[in-house]
Inverse folding.
């Protein structure tokens, strides 16, 4: 009897010892998140813990009291990031988690200032914004790190132009001085093309890469293919849908601001499908004929936290090398031709401008490269869709239509009925144009045919979508 009792006691002690050992290598981080103004608790704040001790960052959300808890974190140094829509993000680095202990880390988040300059009474001066660092590095001819932009064309969807870019990107140092980042083809920091051909483009943190280059190789083939499928009461294959083809199937109409031999139109408004982001339309129209044209968009880190290029995923992620002895492929751009790209941009704070658009061009053979650039003022980012041009609303509807057909994670919250309603809000003079009328009919038919299951979760999960990152199982 005594022996059995002794064995039972030893077993209990052993279990307790093993439990203590298992928990001894981990700790807990908890705390509260408050508004800097008023000290009210903030619910729904995304709290992320990143460390070399973790295979992937651990995340949680604050509750109604603004409280959060991250249990069972392996001991080590952590970086904590606190993010919520309409508030400035906060990061705490070198947070030391010790085994068996609970660490309290509380923060205050300040509201995100409006990206639009406040109204100023006539005769009064405003000094609300600090000037940006210069955006104009010296002309470097073919060393500006651009990709080639070509005229929209008709043709088979399998056609591919040479998808290469120069192996150098011109960026700005933190002090505003010009610098160049060199990299080998296919290596970092070409983050904006990492997943091309594999779902939608990723969202890029400007701290990792602020310069976006892409091959404006577009046609109308994918949109024509989709029209044919819908005419036969069938949805096209997701991989056959190219957003850039849909967008560039519609003539925007107006030219925009004249910048040298180009007309550039840049305009944006809050995204109807992605909280905290603006949809930005970038159109470049050639006023003359050119032998070669390239484009580059550089975001200001003081104004933009993240961005995503919408479409162009089918371009190559491994540009071919370019050196002084190589001859670029001649890609003529006809006078009057317009090419449009769409971005999703997350603003971080007030600024005079949120980026710079550069266009590199060559007018004929054996001539020097020339470049024009346009500072992109924050004033072009309107407060609502009703304040942008009908052509910008049309651009978004066409892009969103393509993304929904592709099953994009970022259009989950935009159902077909809402997309059709946005089409109805495009406005004149475009709303009655035959191709725009047909677009509305195609959206309505696609909505009726779409019986696909949401691969990212049940409908109830829409309220918990992370506005910045795809889920781990996302494409």
């Amino acid at each position: 009897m005594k022996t059995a009792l002794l064995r039972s006691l030893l077993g209990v002690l052993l279990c307790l010892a093993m439990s203590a050992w298992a928990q001894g290598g981990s700790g807990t981080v908890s705390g509260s998140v408050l508004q800097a103004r008023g000290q009210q608790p903030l619910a729904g704040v995304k709290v992320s813990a990143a460390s070399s001790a973790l295979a992937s960052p651990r995340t949680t959300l604050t509750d109604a009291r603004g409280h959060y808890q991250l249990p069972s974190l392996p001991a080590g140094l952590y970086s904590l990031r606190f993010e919520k829509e309409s508030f400035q993000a906060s990061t705490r680095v070198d947070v030391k988690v010790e085994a068996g202990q609970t660490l309290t880390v509380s923060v205050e988040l300040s509201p995100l200032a409006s990206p639009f300059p406040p109204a100023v009474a006539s005769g009064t001066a405003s000094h609300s914004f600090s000037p940006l660092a210069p955006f104009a590095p010296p002309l470097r001819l073919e060393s500006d790190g651009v990709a080639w932009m070509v005229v929209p064309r008709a043709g088979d969807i399998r056609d591919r132009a040479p998808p290469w870019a120069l192996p150098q990107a011109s960026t700005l140092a933190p002090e505003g001085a010009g610098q160049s980042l060199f990299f080998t083809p296919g290596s970092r920091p070409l983050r904006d093309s990492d997943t091309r051909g594999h779902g939608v483009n990723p969202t890029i943190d400007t701290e990792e890469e602020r310069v976006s280059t892409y091959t404006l190789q577009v046609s109308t083939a994918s949109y024509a293919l989709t029209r044919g499928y819908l005419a036969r009461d069938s949805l096209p294959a997701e991989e056959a849908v190219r957003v850039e083809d849909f967008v560039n199937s519609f003539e925007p109409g107006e030219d925009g601001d004249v910048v040298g031999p180009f007309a550039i139109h840049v305009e944006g408004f809050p995204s109807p499908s992605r909280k905290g982001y603006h949809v930005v339309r970038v159109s470049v129209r050639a006023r003359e004929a050119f032998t070669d044209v390239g484009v580059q968009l550089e975001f200001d880190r003081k104004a933009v936290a993240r961005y995503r290029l919408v479409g162009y995923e089918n371009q190559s992620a491994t540009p071919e090398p370019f050196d002084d002895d190589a001859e670029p492929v001649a890609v003529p751009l006809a006078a009057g031709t317009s090419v449009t790209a769409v971005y999703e941009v997350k603003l971080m704070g007030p600024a005079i401008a949120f980026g710079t658009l550069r266009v590199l061009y060559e007018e004929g053979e054996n001539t020097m490269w020339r470049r024009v650039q346009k500072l992109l003022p924050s004033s072009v980012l309107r407060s609502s869709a009703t304040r942008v041009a009908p052509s910008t609303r049309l651009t978004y509807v066409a892009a969103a239509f393509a993304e929904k057909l592709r099953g994009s994670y970022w259009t989950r919250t935009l159902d077909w009925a809402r997309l059709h309603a946005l089409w109805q809000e495009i406005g004149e003079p475009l709303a009655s144009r035959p191709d725009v009328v047909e677009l509305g009919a195609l959206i309505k038919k696609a909505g009726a045919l779409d019986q696909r299951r949401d691969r990212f979760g049940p409908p109830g999960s829409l309220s918990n979508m992370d506005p910045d990152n795809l889920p781990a199982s996302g494409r």
Observations:
- The longest strand covers residues 26-35.
- Residues 24-109 form a domain with the Immunoglobulin-like fold (CATH 2.60.40.1120).
- The two ends are 62 Å apart (CA to CA).
- Residues 16-23, 114-198, 316-330 have pLDDT under 50 and may be disordered.
